[in-house]
């Protein structure tokens, strides 16, 4: 037993793998012991059973089993009552496996030990009693699962059978008694009984029929009450023994021997609801301990009967629709059901969902279920909200695994028992997520279903106009949502169907069916006709869909090549062009549709020109193809918007300008005319006066941005992206002009002028059509009355101020009781003058309030507009990174950032992003630039940087400066760069109010050391011009950065060696002046400067051919003098590290440099020597630091 005892401990582990491993090892060891065991004629007393005074022969295990085996059986059975961790699970698994492996025990032996080990006593606590009951259940279940209960073999060298009928009856009786003892054990106990019945059905024991009779008698004669467990066992027995008299056995509770017959379903529902079968209703509060959150195992068996799995090949029993309606919907989801029962109902639904086919899907979404589900989904405070959300997740998973079922699901969610606004009502995206999982065929089926809802004669809403319009509005919204949802897989066919439908019902009136028309919307004529509100809604949704499609990218294949293009279908045509083709086709089909509004001759001529121009653009040469596509998109979009615009918003000027710009950008090839040279010259002169064609087109794009609709913005960005390759300087200037800061008063003045012009036009129209517009004038009067109501409160406030002014001057406000003569007598000249100022002040205050409100609105609109214009700039920089025109946008964007107020933060952030991410990080540079203009821009940027208000702005200016530097250096223009940074360097060190920071100079030196080398003299002289010690140290930091970059300079040995004496002298002068108190240099700053000196010495030795040459450059004697000065200086004498660094520098110069005599020819040797020198330097510094620490400790102790 010494080998098996340690294994028992791990059977209680909380880790499943560890428990199983321990079980395997234990069973293997026990099998090994049993195989070597030889039974004895007389069993000896086991040592392990002597405690407690029990008779070892009472259970008879030792007769045929090895000592370890019999001990393990007893211990495993006793361990079933242990409450420690997972011991009950581990011991039960090991016991079951052991009993299945050995054939030297009988069922009666094991059952007897189990019953003896799990006796309950009155002195036990509740927990101890529960442990004993579970031990009995697990022990009897182990007997069943191990096969010992129905084992018909005899024991070795004996005629005793392992199991018999009495043992079976004993186990069955004990389990039934255990189930009656505690209600919370009943389900588990009957599940074990079910295991025994399954084993009995599959066995071939000689006493099988007697065992079946005993089982039937015990279940139906001795146990009268019906429970879900009894229903589950009945289903098993009926399937195995259909010939028994089930009608007699099930009576009187069930009228029909078939449990799933319609007549039995009501009784079955009450049993499964776990209420008494005789009760009509149940109480909301379940009996104590009788409810569990897990649904009963009988539901799986019932669903296997009514919805068998396809792989089982079994026919269904009963009617699933009736079963689900009566047993689930009208029982668990009844209005009187408790939340606990509804929770079960949701679980049953989740179990049934994956089993149901698309045809049977409506049977699941029953009335009561949908009501409960929607109610609990709609509010997170609902008791079953999480359960309802889990149902949503399961539905989504089912659709993902089987997309074809999605359409049936959507019909139920939006159908009779659901709601058309299901997602809105439940605050979820259930319908939307189902749509995203469907395939193109399912989406097309859903669209067909929606279109049938437009004019569904079978619907009761057909007679109710308001309900019909509501349903049609919902259909329009659903169609638009299909295109709007980017997660839904797109297909040209159903997208075109939706667009065509919106065009037909938004711009035309169907008059006659066209059964064979390719346009699906013409195959039916809605009755009654669409209202004007619905037509307007269709037009708006059409533009919204086009906005979404214009922004989306599609993979277009052209032979072997494939490219992602925006705003096009899979065939490469613009969606806007497809819609325009549909409109043209419908305009010609006067037999089946008629347009909503007629066009006059001038407008018709303009539209014809636009269509002719579009046709001509298709023949543009390949080199101008992208620009032509941009013009095509612009013209097509403008035409579609013109068709969809309301009469009040109809504006042909934009269309005219687009046609004009496009026709001049791509002129038609005309035959030679007989015009004189004089007339030709006049035409050319006129053309020179006109703006460039591309400017006209971009101006139209900017006009789109001003209107601010999603359609206009999407079109504008895509059009400009295509036109970006043709822009000129004037075009960029036109865009940048929109970013200029304007006074709100100017904006309001422009708006007032527009309003006055509109008023004049309206007045003329009213005078011209006075007789024909009586109804419209009455509606205008109503609008005016509404405006008056809105302003009534403000007018009352103004009236109060006027009355107050009159009262102050002794004049009462006019009333109906006062007469004019008395007032006239009181109103003399002095009084009139006295109240004049007060009345004027009152009117000025009112006007000022309106003006301020208008100013705020105008400023907000201007900011939004500038945001959209910045999108154009972003597009241009992204599409044309090598264009020299990029340089023209830098400074205006910088001015925009610097001049933006707190209410324009978003605008400034967007401009900053363009400068930093698009321009600053660009890997390309413009191909040809004006060096003078770039130099001027760089100079202006540096001037702004010296006065930058924040660090963020300075960082942006720094990146712009680096970019311009790269451009100038790329075009061999170093002088402007050196000049700009030279002046900024002086400003940084010498001017107190300078806003520059060290990274502004350091980044330039790191990025472009070759250019920075040319201002080395200025860098060395900068410390002498510094305001204070802090600026001196920072100036030396710039030099340190440059010295670190010497290796990147190439072959400049002579210049470097000539530079080092200047640097040495600058360092010595600075530190000497600090010792005498002439500068405010701190010890920390001095240390950084000496580090620079050490670095410079090392760099010098790499470029010199002998140690003497390096010594002659750095003159060790002067550093000895400096060390003495530092030691005698009051400021630096305590900083012994500075003196140590001076000595280290002298030592570095005195060392032999034989390894580096030929630095240019032997780079590897020089590198190795430099590493050795650096290691020695570090050791010296460490020793100095250690000495400093010792001194500090000594001073502290003293």
TrEMBL record:
Residues 1185-1198 have a biased composition (Basic residues). One of its GO terms (molecular function) is rDNA binding. InterPro entries: ARM-type_fold, DNA_pol_V/MYBBP1A. One of its GO terms (cellular component) is nucleolus. It is found in: Nucleus. Pfam families: DNA_pol_phi. Belongs to the MYBBP1A family. Keywords: Nucleus. PANTHER family: MYB-BINDING PROTEIN 1A (PTHR13213:SF2), MYB-BINDING PROTEIN 1A FAMILY MEMBER (PTHR13213). GO terms for biological process: regulation of DNA-templated transcription. Coiled coil: none annotated. Residues 746-794 have a biased composition (Acidic residues). Residues 38-62, 669-688, 743-794, 1153-1198 are annotated as: Disordered. It comes from Trametes coccinea (strain BRFM310). Residues 679-688 have a biased composition (Basic and acidic residues). This is DNA polymerase phi-domain-containing protein.
């Amino acid at each position: 037993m010494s080998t098996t005892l340690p294994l028992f401990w791990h059977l209680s582990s909380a880790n499943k793998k560890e428990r199983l491993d321990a079980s395997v090892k234990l069973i293997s060891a026990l099998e090994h012991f049993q195989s070597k065991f030889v039974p004895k004629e007389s069993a000896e007393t086991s040592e392990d059973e002597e405690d407690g005074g029990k008779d070892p022969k009472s259970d008879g295990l030792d007769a045929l089993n090895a000592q370890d085996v019999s001990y393990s059986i007893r211990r495993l059975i006793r361990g079933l009552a242990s409450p420690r961790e997972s011991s009950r699970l581990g011991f039960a698994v090991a016991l079951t496996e052991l009993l299945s492996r050995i054939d030297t025990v009988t069922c009666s032996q094991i059952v007897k030990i189990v019953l003896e080990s799990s006796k309950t006593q009155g002195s036990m606590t509740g927990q101890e009693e529960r442990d004993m009951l579970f031990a009995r259940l697990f022990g009897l279940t182990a007997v069943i699962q191990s096969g010992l209960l129905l084992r018909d073999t005899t024991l070795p060298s004996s005629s005793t059978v392992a199991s018999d009928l009495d043992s079976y009856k004993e186990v069955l009786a004990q389990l039934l008694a255990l189930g009656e003892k505690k209600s919370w054990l009943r389900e588990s106990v009957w599940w074990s009984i079910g295991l025994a019945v399954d084993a009995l059905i599959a066995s071939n024991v000689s006493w099988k029929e007697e065992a079946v009779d005993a089982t039937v008698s015990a279940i139906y004669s001795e146990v009268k009450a019906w429970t879900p467990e009894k229903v589950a066992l009945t289903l098993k027995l009926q399937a195995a023994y259909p010939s028994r008299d089930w009608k007699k056995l099930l009576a009187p509770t069930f009228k029909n021997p078939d449990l799933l017959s319609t007549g039995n379903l009501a009784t079955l529902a009450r049993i499964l609801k776990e209420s008494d079968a005789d009760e009509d209703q149940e109480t909301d509060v379940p009996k104590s301990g009788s409810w569990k959150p897990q649904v009963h195992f009988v539901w799986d068996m019932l669903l296997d009967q009514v919805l068998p799995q396809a792989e089982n090949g079994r026919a269904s029993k009963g009617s699933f629709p009736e079963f689900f309606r009566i047993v689930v919907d009208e029982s668990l989801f009844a209005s009187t059901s408790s939340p606990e029962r509804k929770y079960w109902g949701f679980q049953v639904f989740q179990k049934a969902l994956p089993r149901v086919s698309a045809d049977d899907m409506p049977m699941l979404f029953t009335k009561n279920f949908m009501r409960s589900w929607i109610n609990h989904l709609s509010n997170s405070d609902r008791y079953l909200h999480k359960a309802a959300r889990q149902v949503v997740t399961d539905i989504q998973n089912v659709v993902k695994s089987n997309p074809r079922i999605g359409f049936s699901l959507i019909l139920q969610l939006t159908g009779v028992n659901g709601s058309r606004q299901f997602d809105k009502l439940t605050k979820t995206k259930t319908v939307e997520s189902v749509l995203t999982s469907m395939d193109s065929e399912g989406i097309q089926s859903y669209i067909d279903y929606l279109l049938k809802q437009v004019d569904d004669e079978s619907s009761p809403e057909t007679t109710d106009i308001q309900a019909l319009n509501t349903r049609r509005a919902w259909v329009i919204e659903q169609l638009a949502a299909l295109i709007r949802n980017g997660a839904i897989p797109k297909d040209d066919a159903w997208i075109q169907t939706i667009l065509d439908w919106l065009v037909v019902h938004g711009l035309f009136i169907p008059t006659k069916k066209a059964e064979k028309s390719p346009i699906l919307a013409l195959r039916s004529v809605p009755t009654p006709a669409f209202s004007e509100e619905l037509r307007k809604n269709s037009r708006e949704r059409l533009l919204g869909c086009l906005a979404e499609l214009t922004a989306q990218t599609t993979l277009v294949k052209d032979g072997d090549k494939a490219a992602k293009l925006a705003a096009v279908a899979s065939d490469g045509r613009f969606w806007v062009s497809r819609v325009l083709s549909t409109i043209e086709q419908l305009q010609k089909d006067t037999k089946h549709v008629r347009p909503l509004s007629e066009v006059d001759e001038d407008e018709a001529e303009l539209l014809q020109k636009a269509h002719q121009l579009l046709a001509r653009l298709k023949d543009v040469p390949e080199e101008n193809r992208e620009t032509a596509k941009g013009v095509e998109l612009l013209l097509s979009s403008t035409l579609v918007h013109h068709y969809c615009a309301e009469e009040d918003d109809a504006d042909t000027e934009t269309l005219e300008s687009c046609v004009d710009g496009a026709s001049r950008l791509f002129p038609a090839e005309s035959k030679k005319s007989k015009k004189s040279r004089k007339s030709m010259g006049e035409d050319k002169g006129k053309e020179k006066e006109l703006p460039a064609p591309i400017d006209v087109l971009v101006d139209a794009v900017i006009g789109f941005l001003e209107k601010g609709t999603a359609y206009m913005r999407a079109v504008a960005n895509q059009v400009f992206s295509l036109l970006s390759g043709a822009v000129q300087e004037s075009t960029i200037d036109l865009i940048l002009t929109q970013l200029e800061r304007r006074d709100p008063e100017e904006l309001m003045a422009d708006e007032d002028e527009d309003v006055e012009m509109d008023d004049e036009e309206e007045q003329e129209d009213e005078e011209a059509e006075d007789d024909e517009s009586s109804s419209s004038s009455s509606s205008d009067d109503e609008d005016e009355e509404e405006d008056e109501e809105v302003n009534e409160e403000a007018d009352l406030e103004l009236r109060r101020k006027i009355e107050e002014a009159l009262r102050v001057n002794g004049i009462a406000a006019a009333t109906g009781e006062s007469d004019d003569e008395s007032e006239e007598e009181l109103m003399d000249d002095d009084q009139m003058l006295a109240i004049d100022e007060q009345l004027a002040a009152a009117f000025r205050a009112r006007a000022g309030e309106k003006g301020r409100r208008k100013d705020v609105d105008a400023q907000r609109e201007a900011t939004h507009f500038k945001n959209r214009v910045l999108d154009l700039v972003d597009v241009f920089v992204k599409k044309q990174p090598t264009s020299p025109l990029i340089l023209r946008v830098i400074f205006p964007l910088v001015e925009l950032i610097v001049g933006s107020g707190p209410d324009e933060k978003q605008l400034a952030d967007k401009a900053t992003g363009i400068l930093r991410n698009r321009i600053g990080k660009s890997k390309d540079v413009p191909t040809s630039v004006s060096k003078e203009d770039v130099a001027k821009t760089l100079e202006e940027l540096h001037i702004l940087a010296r006065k930058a208000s924040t660090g963020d702005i300075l960082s942006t200016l720094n990146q712009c400066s680096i970019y311009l530097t790269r451009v100038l250096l790329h075009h061999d223009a170093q002088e402007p760069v050196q000049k700009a940074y030279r002046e900024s360097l002086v400003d940084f060190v010498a001017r107190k109010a300078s806003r520059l920071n060290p990274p502004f100079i350091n980044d330039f030196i790191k990025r472009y050391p070759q250019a920075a080398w040319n201002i080395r003299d200025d860098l060395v002289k900068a410390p002498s011009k510094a305001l204070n010690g802090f600026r001196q140290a920072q100036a030396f930091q710039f030099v340190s950065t440059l010295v670190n970059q010497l290796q990147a300079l190439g072959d400049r040995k002579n210049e470097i060696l000539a530079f080092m004496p200047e640097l040495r002298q600058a360092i010595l002068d600075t530190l000497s002046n600090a010792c005498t108190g002439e500068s405010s240099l701190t010890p920390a700053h001095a240390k950084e400067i000496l580090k620079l000196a050490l670095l410079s010495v090392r760099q010098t030795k790499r470029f010199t051919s002998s140690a003497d040459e390096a010594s002659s450059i750095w003159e060790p004697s002067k550093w000895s003098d400096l060390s003495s000065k530092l030691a005698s200086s009051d400021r630096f004498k305590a900083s012994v590290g500075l003196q140590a660094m001076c000595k280290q520098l002298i030592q570095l110069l005195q060392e032999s440099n034989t390894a580096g005599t030929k630095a240019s020819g032997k780079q590897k040797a020089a590198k190795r020597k430099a590493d050795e020198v650096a290691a020695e330097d570090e050791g010296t510094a460490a020793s100095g630091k250690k000495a400093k620490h010792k001194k500090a400790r000594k001073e502290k102790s003293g």
